[in-house]
Structures are given as C-alpha cells and as structure tokens.
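Narrative of accomplishments. A recurring question from our advisory board has been how the design workflow behaves on a single, concrete structure rather than in aggregate. To address it, we present the structure tokens for one chain from the evaluation set, followed by the sequence designed for it. No filtering or post-editing was applied between the two.
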C-alpha cells in the first residue's frame, strides 16, 4: 500500500527537519540562566506561519519539540514538559494572532508574542510542577526581558528570511 502525501506534508517534513536541526544545535549552547535559550528554531515556525499559514506552522512547531526531544534524549523529562508547554502556548498564541483581521501581525510581532507566551507558560509550569517557591517570582522580570529580546532577534531574522524566500 502506497501512502499518498501532499505538498503540505512535504513542507511540514522539510521545515520540521530544519527546525529540529536548529533546536539540536541550540541545545548544545551554554545558557546564562536555566531555561533561557535564544529559541532560533522558532524563526522557522514564524516563516512558515507567514508563508503557509497557522496549520502548517503548528505541525512544524509541535513536531520539532517531540522529535527534537527524542533525538536529544529528553523525551518525557522535565525539560520536555517545559518545552512542550511553551510550544503549545506559543502555538496557540500564533493561531490566535493569525486570526486578526487583515494580514495578522508582522514576523516581528508574531515572534515577540510567541516568545513572551512561551516564557510565561514555562514559568507557570515550572512554578506549579517543579519549583513551588515564591522566590522564583524574582526571576520573572529577567526571564520575560530575555524572552522579549530573543523574540525581537528571532523576529528580525524571520523578517529578513521572508524577504529572501520566493515560494
């Protein structure tokens, strides 16, 4: 029996592979604070969202987290739970923003919103499941500032990529 695939299936596979590659490379980088990474794999999600829509972007984002965690060896670990919760939240945020009238947001707007939502939900999950201590709230401004800065950087990279991609 031959499986029939669509053009969207091929796009999802290709962009997911690219995002997983970036995700794995980024996991090897040292982190200034636990849980703080640039999130450069999200550049791919933003580019896919703008070019191909939220359905394909959602698949790319969620498959990246699952497959990336299997390849890195963190599947079902606390790291995976944190990553998946952030990805689900940021994907939901992107889906909602993509429904805005007109053309939605710019790549920069999508990226900053997704990064901020990703960090906020990860923080809440960390507090509820792993570090139930009020002292953690002192880190929230630092983490949200990092999310904003990395969201801006990723958004600018995505915007530059979108000017170069002809699809």
């Amino acid at each position: 029996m031959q499986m029939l695939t669509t053009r969207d299936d091929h796009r999802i596979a290709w962009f997911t592979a690219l995002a997983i590659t970036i995700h794995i490379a980024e996991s090897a980088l040292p982190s200034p604070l636990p849980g703080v990474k640039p999130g450069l794999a999200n550049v791919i999600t933003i580019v896919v969202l703008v070019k191909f829509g939220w359905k394909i972007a959602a698949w790319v984002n969620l498959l990246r987290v699952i497959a990336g965690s299997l390849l890195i060896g963190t599947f079902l670990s606390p790291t995976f739970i944190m990553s998946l919760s952030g990805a689900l939240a940021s994907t939901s945020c992107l889906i909602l923003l993509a429904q805005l009238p007109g053309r939605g947001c710019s790549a920069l707007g999508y990226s900053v919103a997704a990064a901020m939502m990703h960090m906020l939900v990860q923080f809440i999950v960390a507090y509820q499941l792993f570090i139930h201590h009020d002292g953690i709230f002192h880190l929230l401004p630092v983490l949200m500032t990092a999310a904003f800065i990395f969201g801006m950087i990723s958004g600018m990279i995505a915007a530059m990529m979108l000017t170069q991609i002809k699809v």
